[in-house]
Amino acid sequence: MARDPLSPRCADCGIRHRAVCSRCDAAELARLEQVKFYRSYEAGQRVVWAGDEMAFVGSVVTGVATLSHSLEDGRVQVVGLLMPSDFVGRPGRETAPFDVTAASALTLCCFRRAPFERLMAEMPHVSERLLEMTLDELDAARDWAVVLGRKSARERVASFLASVARREAKLELVPPPRPQRLALPLTREAMADHLGLTLETVSRQLGALARAGAIALDAKRRISILDPARLAAETGDDATAA
Amino acid sequence: MARDPLSPRCADCGIRHRAVCSRCDAAELARLEQVKFYRSYEAGQRVVWAGDEMAFVGSVVTGVATLSHSLEDGRVQVVGLLMPSDFVGRPGRETAPFDVTAASALTLCCFRRAPFERLMAEMPHVSERLLEMTLDELDAARDWAVVLGRKSARERVASFLASVARREAKLELVPPPRPQRLALPLTREAMADHLGLTLETVSRQLGALARAGAIALDAKRRISILDPARLAAETGDDATAA
DNA sequence: CGCCGATTTGAACTGCTTCAAGCCATGTGG
DNA sequence: CCACATGGCTTGAAGCAGTTCAAATCGGCG
Asked: Which chain B residue has the Cα nearest residue A67?
């Protein structure tokens, strides 16, 4: 496992204003800087195994990771996507509840778990922000339950693309150009495992959305959103016409 | 809406050792006691509408509530069950993200939102416990995604029964008798909306589990778990034989 | 150039939904 | 005290969305 691929000062960090540290002042950042360290992973590498002891916690700096659970017979469910600024691991838990896997090249800003927990007790800014982020993730996880429990294959794929586009747009400082082009962070198989479908069905529905003019398949892992309103309509969420 | 059906002292409260207040000392409890108030709802009553302003937050004292989201065309997904000691509402959010509905007769121990937020800032015991509870709920929500995304109808129904039995057992002080008898907190329709199935399929799978000897259908809303190991095997989670 | 993994496409199958009765307990008014 | 609504539940039969299995195509990369 490669280490320390970069070591910028916190003040210059790309996720400075969105991660657990976002509410920290300069003095607090200085304390974090002392104990933080970076780790990098290649696409496909496992970061954490479910059930293993979590030696560290941290934030995604660049890249995307999946949180997933596997059943004995090989079925897999991707229960969450971790994008830049998202937090990995949890204070107060010894073992990881889910597998964490790098979906693309990934860099984490890490802290050893025990020291981080001690810091949290002294820095309410961090624990407040972590509570806020956790509540947001809980809402997101419950929103995803609607997708998994009640939506058709077409709606699931459209919902996924819409949510990736939304998160991508939020990370950028300037509004995205139209048409919005985006790199899909997952393979067809990982998408299927996230959407509760088979990879064949995902492929067919992507094709169908392209034929319908909502999107264009630019390359295997790259699409353009030609008609955002149409895509939104295909999610099944909202009859709100634009 | 009925109010103040009961007003026990916090020290005697049934959820004293599990709810947000579980870490509070006597002095802190006294502060909460000053501002708390009870609300009761009949089965079927709506507690909160999604999108509405949340005037209060609180804990389930008795009864069960559902958290759900409805799509325009009438599809419904129950994204969570709220059992005694679970927390309703969230500090730092003006509007409710989901509908909250009483599934049975329900009593909440409430706090007006703004004063509660102020209290939280002064009582780290409360915010720590809330973070812990939120992290647990997040894990539970993600575990449920596995059910919705990857399990068959049979496995979903078995998983639901197993999870209700587990939570029920955890609330009791003494281990449950064998066979464990339990009151289903939801109608067939609400179960279906939780499991991402139709009510007919739920009914058929309950019948099938009974025919297989895993459970007995004692009454419409009441079952016995005759063979816990068999039921566990039917969930699809674990090939661990007993 | 030729291999390999990822993706697309095709065709048959199936588990769940859909639509439609029927059942059972409870309650209500004549 | 019975006739008859009413709401939750069960049962049946037909249809279909998505899976499964299989094969073809694409796109990198050594």
From this structure: B142
Dump pLDDT digits (tens) for A165-200.
999 888 777 777 778 899 999 999 999 999 999 999
Domain for residue B132, yes or no? no
State which amino acid sits at residue B174: V
In this complex, how many residue pairs, one in chain A and one in chain B, have their CB atoms less than 8 Å apart?
A: 104
Q: Write the CA distances from A140 to A11, A143, A146, B67, B227, integer angstroms.
A: 29, 5, 10, 14, 36
Residue A198's nearest nucleotide, by CA–C1', is D19
**Phi-psi sector, A236: left (phi>0), alpha (psi -120 to 50), beta:** left
pTM listed for this prediction:
0.93
| Helices A153-171 and A199-211, packing angle to 10 deg | 80
Task: Give residue-wise pLDDT tens across range B1-14.
Answer: 444 446 568 988 99
Host domain of residue A158: 151-234
A238 reaches B (C-beta below 8 A)? yes
Q: Is B141 in Cβ contact with A141 (below 8 Å)?
A: yes
Count of domains in chain A? Answer: 2
- A142, B67: Cβ pair inside 8 Å? yes
